[in-house]
Amino acid sequence: VQLQASGGGLVQPGGYLRLSCTASESIFSFNTMGWYRQAPGNQRELVATIIADGTTVYADSVKGRFTGSRDNAKNTVYLQMNSLKPEDTAVYYCNARRILVKKTDYWGQGTQVTVSS
User: Fold this and answer.
1) 17 — alpha (psi -120 to 50), left (phi > 0) or beta?
2) Antiparallel, parallel or unpaired: β 9-11 and 17-23
3) CA 58, CA 32: separation in Å to the nearest integer?
4) Parallel, antiparallel, or unpaired for β 90-99 and 45-51?
5) Could you read off the pLDDT of 51-63 as tens digits, one per residue?
6) Nearest-angstrom CA–CA distance, 77 and 98
């Protein structure tokens, strides 16, 4: 399984970005798709989990500002990030999780998001 993430960049506070993550196989084959982020010196943290029915669960720190979505035909999930803050600066990782007998996580390569004036 390969996950290709894109869309990161440098943006001013209050700006927006849209991240994309395309999987090499049908995203229906995964129980959840998700976005995580890791800032320097910090542990990787969950940002949003997108369930197969499209329901998205968000970290408290991004509720009301970030929106997760999926396009099943394109095997792609998105993270629309609005009202960005400097504390959103991190490397963002796409995750796909498959739960059969055991849980298996797949990761994209990460895309840098920098929020700075």
Assistant:
1) beta
2) unpaired
3) 13
4) unpaired
5) 988 899 999 999 9
6) 15
